[in-house]
Write a structure and sequence with these properties.
Layout lengths: L1 E5 L2 E5 L8 H8 L18 E7 L5 E7 L12 E3 L12 H8 L9 H14 L6 H8 L10 H10 L14 H9 L1 H10 L5 E4 L2 E4 L4 H10 L4 E3 L5 H6 L7 E4 L9 E3 L3 E5 L4 H11 L4 H5 L4 H6 L2 H6 L7 H7 L3 E6 L2 E6 L4 E3 L2 E2 L6 E8 L5 E8 L10 E10 L2 E2 L3 E5 L6 E2 L1 H7 L6 H14 L10 H18 L15
Helix pairs in contact: 2-3, 2-5, 15-16, 16-17
Amino acid sequence: MIQFLLNGEPQHASLTQPGLSLLDWLRDERQLTGSKEGCASGDCGACTAAIGSVDSSGAIQYRSVNACITPLASLQGRHIITVEGLKQGGSLHPSQQAMVDCHGSQCGFCTPGFVMSMFVLGREHDSAPETEEIHRALGGNLCRCTGYRPIVDACVQMFDPATDTDANAGADSQAQDFFSAHEKDWAWKLEAIQLAPQMATAAGQFLVPVNSDELAALLQRYPEARMIAGGTDLSIELTQQLAEIETLIDTTRVVEMNILKQEIDQLTIGAALPYSDFSAVLLAQFPELDELLARLGSKQIRNRGTLGGNIGNASPIADMPPVLIALGAELILSSVRGRRRISLQDFYQSYKVTSLEAGEFIEQIIIPNRQPGSLLRVYKISKRFEDDISSTCGAFYLPIHEGQVVTPRIAFGGMAAIPARASHTEQQLNNQTLNDNTIEAAQLALSNDYAPIDDFRASGAYRLQVSRNMLKRLQLELADGTDRFIGVHHHA
């Protein structure tokens, strides 16, 4: 049995299969049909729910998630809020009332998902955030008929119900206060729920280790088991391909895989830590990554997706591996045989083949601290600007000394079967200034580093040309001699 709160009420739910999604349980078992299935892949946001967990201060922190790819079993001891739980008595929640007042709904299919994203945004801010923050909060919710302007207007009004001209202006304060008034009681109930290490079903089992030793032992005992953290990729096998997985091992409670530690010389990120938990710390050192992280799926995806999953999936077009390779990242791999440390650039062997040995898993990612006077640029090319997989992604990490590039590290994704460094290109830029001649030589060298293929995202010729253009863009961005992120003067 799985224990959690649903819209404030304790639940004891049966798990019919290891990969049962939150969405299927809500709709089929509880007939809570406000959450809609539009894509079953975490793209449209129609199924958005809020998941609350108790933070270190004893408060409940809510995050938006895609219920269609969130395993129900992973929510033990969490508080699930759906659109049905927002209205209190005769009072709509501010997120609901604002959508009504601003005419933010037409067919209504996507509306509950938008409302839930707005609810979470309202819990995160005391006053209306900047428009960009609103766009990021709603970026994982698609609407095909209303248009987004009235929905953005509703987000702004949600923070100031007094702007409502409706006769019921202010009547939704009761619904708003309801969640604050019950927070302590809910937090106490959540903390009282004991974690279930094993949930068995007729179709298999869902295992929940709490440390690396337990996880290693389970992988040795169940060599065919699949590990799941955010589930943003594996869950699609269940929803789109109807895969049957007998044993799922949840890594989200493994303490070593949830670490976030900034040290004198390195940053350590647990492999099961969601992007939302480590992005601020990573951006403190590398603010240039802001756009890439904002484009890495939607907010719902970043609330669940993990760095370990992005690496371990071994996709040649994953967003983070080129960046991490350029930054010189290393991995801590763990198993019953112990731990070992390996460079990320040596982790990938061939398409979808890595250096992981039997029973081994990625425990942590180690990123060296930024070198003084270095610059970083990352360029992602995709058909859509947001919520899309890249055709090619280039990362350029260039230490600068007296106006010259020293030991540059350049890596690309989407240009080969694995994310890989551009060694010939690096050689052309090493101990050089960034001028027309050196950039042209580097562009030519890129064809010696990669021979990209044609596929449905882009042709090989396009990939090569646009990747060469990234080098020119790098030069042009620095042509004024000032790096706008770290304030270091360069002579290019």
